[in-house]
Design brief:
By secondary structure, the protein is α/β, with parallel strands linked by helices. Helices cover 47% and strands 17% of the residues. The chain has ten helices and six strands; from the N terminus they run αβαααααβββααββαα. It is globular.
Length: 270
């Protein structure tokens, strides 16, 4: 005889199995997930399938705080309610302190990184001087594609028909290299923009806030996504789905491993 047990009201839902998580990951795809899978399938497995928690790096915390302030600044411009520099600094102080995840700081590192992050924001606000009003700010969007996972993402900023993404960097970017290394993300953003507006973007822009002794802003302007890049994106998405079907989660050893938060877990992989 089979005995059934009714779930207890208010009891926490059972955690999905690893196979169930993999199936969920096949239903939707984001730029960050696809990029990570292409870079290192084992790291993808640790982060998205096993969901191993790691402290946030200092660089990521700086980027998150800067991003939060620029989001507030752009939303204020969209509402025609510009913020003062003091307002922005208050927002920055709150964003810096409100991080949801613990940060892995070295001794005496936090104060210097906080000063650097605020200088980046000041530099960007002073140099950006936009004339066009934002069309979209931090909008979560999705696009249904026949035979492929649903694309999901958040557009940092759309302005003047151009899709803009913010980056923080420790060195001055090379336009050709960043166009290539960010191709997956930019192609996904183009798809999201086109599916949700019914028109082609006028272009794409990467706004790098560069953490130098004297901070600077570097804007890389790129043309709309081409048919070739769209085809490349679809092929990469197909590879992602096929890899998940095969449970293909192998490491990609290389120079990038020295700064990976899953270094020890990767060494123990067999």
């Amino acid at each position: 005889m089979i005995t059934t047990v009714e779930p207890i009201e208010g009891a926490p839902a059972a955690e999905p199995s690893l196979d169930e998580r993999v199936e969920q990951l096949k239903q939707t795809i984001s730029a960050s997930r696809l990029s990570l899978y292409l870079a290192c399938r084992l790291k993808f497995f640790f982060r998205y399938v096993l969901k191993l928690q790691k402290p946030k790096s200092a660089a990521l915390h700086v980027g998150s705080a800067v991003h939060s302030v620029l989001k507030a600044w752009n939303k204020a411009r969209w509402r025609n309610q510009p913020l003062t520099l003091k307002d922005l600094h208050d927002q920055f102080t709150k964003a810096w302190a409100d991080g949801e995840e613990p940060v892995k700081w070295e001794d005496g590192e936090e104060a210097g990184e906080q000063t650097t992050a605020w200088k980046l924001i000041e530099t960007y606000i002073r140099q950006a001087n936009p004339t066009a009003k934002p069309e979209f700010v931090e909008v979560p969007v999705e696009a249904e594609l026949k035979g492929l996972p649903k694309i999901i993402g958040v557009l940092d900023l759309v302005q003047g028909g151009k899709v803009i993404d913010y980056k923080t960097s420790g060195q001055t970017p090379n336009a050709e290299k960043v166009a290539h290394t960010n191709e997956v993300q930019l192609s996904i953003y183009s798809m999201l923009y086109r599916h949700n507006t019914g028109r082609e973007e006028k272009g794409l822009e990467l706004h790098h806030l560069v953490k130098l002794k004297t901070p600077k802003v570097v804007i890389t302007e790129l043309p709309p996504m081409t048919e070739q890049k769209q085809s490349r994106l679809f092929t990469l998405m197909e590879s992602y789905v096929e890899g998940l079907d095969r449970r293909d989660f192998v490491p990609s050893p290389g120079l990038q491993c020295s700064s990976c938060e899953f270094f020890n877990e990767c060494k123990a992989w067999h």
